């Protein structure tokens, strides 16, 4: 069956404007079988790196994170990183894939200047950076969650500005409609990934949150925040974030508590989470 599926994509004509392009590699975008074919290939990458890498410090067997073609390699030393990048390069060469060097970066937490030197594997050169955005969430080389939250809020200011323009343009719309836009368009972007904001400074996020609530209610910027919470029915941002964190980690605990070798389920991490929620 796999051979038949691969053959189906061997000759695929795509119409781009008035030009017909014959695709001989890859999978068809939007097809229900494309995801299956892609996973079958990428699954080999995970196996290759896991089988050819020793347990890596506190990461244990956690060497790689993959979501479709967005891949993250994790390592506790520079040598381990070079080894995993080499395995990734060999895999891509074997399957006719290419690594986009312009989008491929690495950063070091608590390392030395030597650790920050570029990684070279054949013709692939990976440069270091101070910040990188993966799946919509920024990560910073200082390892600070507060710095990541601040970077995230800076990126989401565009969403806030669009929401303000929407309110000005549609000032006569019912409040219930504006509230739905607030939840779906703005808060879903601002609170994206908030489950990982443990012990982070939420002041940058709180500032945008309170400001957006006042825009939603149509009150002055100097209006008391508590009054806005009561009038809108929304809780303070800190309570909202903790509620989402509690729900997320409760689900993770139920799903992974039976796994004895899972680096994400270590007891000391859960003690810290319990302490955070009990504060």
Concise synopsis of the structure shown:
The chain has 279 residues and is an alpha+beta fold. The chain has helices at residues 2-8, 34-51, 78-94, 145-169, 175-190, 203-217, 225-232, 237-256, 267-278, and strands at residues 12-16, 19-23, 64-67, 70-73, 105-106, 119-121, 124-128, 131-134, 137-140.
How would you characterize this protein structure?
- This protein has 279 residues and is of the alpha+beta class.
- Helices cover 49% and strands 13% of the residues.
- The chain contains nine helices and nine strands.
- It has helices at residues 2-8, 34-51, 78-94, 145-169, 175-190, 203-217, 225-232, 237-256, 267-278; strands spanning 12-16, 19-23, 64-67, 70-73, 105-106, 119-121, 124-128, 131-134, 137-140.
- The radius of gyration is 23 Å and the shape is globular.
Quick one: biggest sheet? Answer: 3 strands, mixed
User: How many β-strands, per DSSP?
Assistant: 9
Q: Average pLDDT across residues?
A: 83
The chain-level structural class is: alpha+beta
Order of helices and strands: HEEHEEHEEEEEHHHHHH
Strands side by side in the biggest sheet: 5-7-6
User: Shape, please?
Assistant: globular
How much strand?
A: 5-15%
Helix content: 40-55%
Which consecutive residue ranges, at least 5 long each, have pLDDT under 50?
1-8, 267-279
What count of helical segments does DSSP give? 9
Specify Rg, calculated over alpha carbons.
Answer: 23 Å
Distance between the termini: 56 Å
